[in-house]
Each structure stands twice: as structure tokens, then as C-alpha cells.
Amino acid sequence: MITNACLLLEILSFTFCLHMLYGEKFKLDIATISLLSVCMIILAAMNYYDSPSIYSMIIYPIMFIYCGVRFEFKIKLILINLVFCVVIVGVIQIVTMLPFWFLRITWLS
């Protein structure tokens, strides 16, 4: 159950970041709920049914389609925002995990 909550929070943070990059407020409309559902199904299948982790790359074309449907189909803008979103969410994940990593090292020594 904790794994599902973490997956949902990660997808929500990615979607929230996309909305902020496009300058719109985050809304739970049918497109966003569909995106969350599809991503959760893919990630749950990877976790529970031992699917190869390469299947997580399917999420990026789905995000591309979501951005086109939800915002507008400007390919260059979508690609730039997706790259920025991956970088921003990745940096936030690294920054939040660093204290836990340092605490674990100090507790082990």
C-alpha cells in the first residue's frame, strides 16, 4: 500500500510540475485522472508482476499525449517542458533523499 501511495505521489508531482511549467493551476479533470490511472496501472504492473523496468519509458509518450490534449500540440514546447519537468522532479528527489542517505551513513559508522 505504501508503494502505491509513493507511486501516486510521484505521478502527481510530475503532473503538478507540468501544470506549473505551462502556467496553469492544477485541476483534477478527466484528462488528468486518466493520466494518473494509466501511469498507476503501468507502474503497478512493473512492481507486482515483475515486468521489465524499461516499461516505465512508456510513461513519457503518454505524458507527451497528455500535454498535447490538456494544453496544446506544440511539439517543441511539449518536449522542452517534459525535459524541464524531469530535471526539476529529479533534482527535488535527489535533494530530499540526500539527508536520508547521509543519516544512514553516519548511523552505520
Largest sheet: none
Which residue ranges are poorly predicted, with pLDDT under 50 across at least 5 consecutive positions?
Answer: none
Oligomer: single chain
Classify the secondary structure makeup into a structural class.
Answer: mainly alpha
Q: Please compute the radius of gyration using only Cα atoms.
A: 16 Å
Instruction: Give the N-terminus to C-terminus distance in angstroms.
Output: 32 Å
Number of DSSP helical runs = 4
Coarse shape: globular
Strand and helix order: HHHH
Please estimate the helix content: over 70%
Q: Write down the overall mean pLDDT.
A: 88
Number of strands: 0
Q: Into which percentage range does the β-strand content fall?
A: under 5%
Your description of this structure?
The protein is mainly alpha-helical. 78% of the residues lie in helices and 0% in strands. The N and C termini lie far apart (32 Å). It is globular and about 50 Å long. Helix 3 (59-70) crosses helix 4 (75-108). The mean pLDDT is 88. The protein has helices at 2-21, 30-48, 59-70, 75-108.
